[in-house]
Amino acid sequence: MFLTILAGVSVFVIGQFVLKLVLEPIVSFKESLGALSAFCLRHTARITNCAATPDDRKEMHLVISMILVKKQGVPFYPAVARLLWLPSEQDLIESCRTLNYISTEMVKEMSTHKGAIAGSREISEGLKEVSDKLGVRVDFSPS
User: The pTM is what?
Assistant: First the structure.
């Protein structure tokens, strides 16, 4: 009887270990990617037309930083990423750099193009690149 109880407790502890240390961080990371998608879809016109506000820029920086923070919470990220088809660490860093650039370009006053067509084109290309690398929808164009 003692061995049955010990086995039951062991299974419970191991299950909680896997749940808390592996599965929950992965779900949280995926939610942060979803937050990026939601932000970009919600503000598509402002982002691509260089009509975003400084507050939008701050919100995008918050989303970018949360993606990187949540990625740090996933143990053995490179191996888990390959196993679960998550973005590679390199793609994640490059995408965050691109998003950081977009966050500056989307605010007309801060943009190097001052809202010109070239800036909108760069933003659209950057969003497409981020979408491809992270596997998230960031605009309403067909897949």
Answer: 0.85
